[in-house]
């Protein structure tokens, strides 16, 4: 479904998938989130990638192909590429085509010997990957897996397993921690996460000709302990009517649009999920404070 269709359907169900955050503006806002002092996942994962790059390179081997799911600015993969011996090809996949093309051009300039073949598309849908050039290794950093419901996360991992054609997956997973620390990460003092959330409505104004008053909506993010997830919502500050796609949607003061879940895992819980998706979990790397984890997953019984 297109953004227009899903946005209108989302106004009906009051639930919109987080993938629609990432137009060019949303991708840029997400890049700013990654630099925030409160948002620990990015710097923690970067430090892990940096510290263990030689180990990853030894596991990946010579002449491999890296496929990155949800590549964004492709910053993290550089730590892998720098450590790899003669990587053959890099295939970044991202839903924001415009943003992906920019990032691919920069990578080509920085890695002249590497074939960079971006694929603009939605990896939660059917996507046709080019035939593998060398051993194919999947890279899914950032704990984006946490933005899927656990059953959908399992289905997505199973799909990656098929796409990887016998190759392994290196995946970043945010870990459960003190709720106050989680809360701060999604309610930063500069309001960048709020702007990221509100950009969904700004995008509807830009692309769908909606006339939504952004000042009439508030960012809300909180940790929900029973479900082990951060929930993000846009909350209506007053009674209002939205007119989008020829339909009318009424929101009362306090009504919310649920825009994102970000699940937090325990190491063992995530390994169990990976097993259910057909992977044999290998080593796990975490920082000293056990904020974030990187998992090496091999396909169980490769064909
Ligand atoms: C991309 N994803 C893993 C981020 C997260 O933490 O769930 C998206 C995000 N939402 C608000 N801040 C960051």
TrEMBL record:
Domain Histidine-specific methyltransferase SAM-dependent as annotated: residue spans: 4-298
Q: Which SUPFAM superfamilies match?
A: S-adenosyl-L-methionine-dependent methyltransferases
Say which domain of life the source belongs to. Answer: Bacteria
Signal peptide segment: none
Q: Give the record's keywords alphabetically.
A: Methyltransferase, Transferase
The record's listing under NCBIfam families reads: egtD_ergothio
Q: What is this protein called?
A: L-histidine N(Alpha)-methyltransferase
Q: Which gene encodes it?
A: egtD
């Amino acid at each position: 479904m297109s953004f227009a269709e899903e946005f209108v359907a989302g106004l009906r169900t009051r639930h919109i998938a987080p993938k629609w955050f990432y137009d060019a503006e949303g991708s840029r806002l997400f890049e700013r989130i990654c630099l925030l002092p409160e948002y620990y996942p990015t710097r923690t994962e970067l430090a892990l990638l940096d510290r263990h790059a030689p180990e990853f390179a030894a596991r990946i081997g010579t002449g491999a192909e890296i496929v990155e799911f949800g590549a964004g600015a492709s910053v993290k993969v550089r730590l892998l590429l720098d450590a790899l011996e003669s990587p053959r090809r890099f295939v970044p996949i991202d839903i924001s085509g415009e943003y992906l093309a920019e990032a691919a051009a920069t990578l080509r300039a920085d890695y002249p010997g590497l074939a960079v073949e971006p694929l603009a598309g939605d990896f939660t849908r059917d996507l046709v990957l080019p035939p593998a050039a060398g051993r194919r290794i999947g890279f899914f950093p950032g704990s984006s897996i946490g933005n899927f419901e656990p059953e959908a996360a399992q289905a997505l991992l199973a799909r990656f397993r098929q796409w990887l054609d016998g190759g392994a997956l290196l995946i970043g997973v945010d870990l459960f921690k003190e709720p106050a620390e989680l809360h701060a990460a999604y309610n930063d003092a500069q309001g960048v996460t709020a702007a990221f959330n509100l950009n969904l409505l700004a995008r509807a104004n830009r692309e769908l000709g909606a006339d939504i008053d952004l000042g009439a909506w508030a960012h809300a993010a909180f940790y929900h302990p029973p479900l082990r997830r951060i929930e993000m919502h846009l909350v209506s500050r007053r009674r209002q009517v939205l007119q989008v796609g020829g339909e009318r949607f009424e929101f009362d003061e306090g009504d919310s649009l649920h825009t994102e879940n970000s699940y937090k895992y325990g190491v063992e819980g995530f390994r169990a999920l990976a097993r259910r998706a057909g992977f044999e979990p290998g080593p796990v790397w975490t920082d000293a404070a056990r904020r974030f984890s990187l998992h090496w997953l091999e396909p169980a019984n490769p064909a």
